[in-house]
Amino acid sequence: MAKKLTIQPNNPHFFKFIMPDDGSLQGISIPEAFVKDYLVGEKCEGNKAKLRTKKSNKSWIVSTKGSCFTDGWKDFYTDNDLQAGDFLLFKHEGGFRFDVIVFDATMCEKVYPPLLDSDTKDNPILMEMDKPGKKKQVPKDFPSLKLMKNTAKVKNPLQLVVQMQRSHFKYRTLLVSAPFGRKSGLVKMAKSAKETNKSYMITIKDPNGKPWKLQLNYKPSANIAFFGRGWTEFLKANKLKVGDVCTFKLVSMAPKKTIMEMTVSKRKSSSLKAKFAR
């Protein structure tokens, strides 16, 4: 009987789902069939894998135990804002290197805000922004530019008023305006958390009084704080749209517990259409 011919892919792939409470935060395993067929000659036990995503040009070094990603995986997980329902596609680039494409619960590829890169030197846009005396060539909808321009100035330093822009949805983040961040202490809290390698979560109560946990992050090169993990879910649950005006009021602040209350003024569809029709 003739042996079947098979065509081996140049860059084989395998995929993994992030399921609720399945221990994915601690590590995931490479499928046994993938190890057998495509990692022949590679020592998995004790090896160090190099993982990359489209979030930045940096690589995450992750140790392996058997065929399971272990030490370093948690950093990859949190840095890329992985959540239950995400679908990860691993592309083998040779050796023990993998490019990882992340799809979220919408079944679309996850879009990361350039600002979330942990290391400025890995992000050409941020490198350009950090160069003194040079004209900054950055995307028009980059959050740090457009959002600051569209953040209303208010007399009460404990109140932040923001009109929802397309960048809030595209980059899945909300930058806290520099004056509000400094006066409210949010920048200080976010900076302290980053320096101690901890996550600082704040509570935002929506118009119905329901509390939402959002991660407060810090960007050293700009000295600003921004909302990261939890922001997308907050947008969807409150059905926020481009043009809506949100008011965030800081009602309580403590080293381990910060509470804000949010109210929203919905933008009329007719006026919003007229604005983008000009």
TrEMBL record:
Keywords, sorted A to Z: DNA-binding, Nucleus, Repeat, Transcription, Transcription regulation
Entry GO CC: nucleus
Listed CDD domains: B3_DNA
Domain TF-B3 residues, every copy: 13-106, 171-268
Gene3D superfamilies linked: DNA-binding pseudobarrel domain
Subcellular location: Nucleus
Signal peptide, first to last residue: none
Domain of life: Eukaryota
Main location as per UniProt: nucleus
PANTHER family referenced in this protein's UniProt entry, alphabetically: B3 DOMAIN-CONTAINING PROTEIN REM-LIKE 3-RELATED (PTHR31674), B3 DOMAIN-CONTAINING PROTEIN REM14-RELATED (PTHR31674:SF62)
Name under which the protein is recorded: B3 domain-containing protein
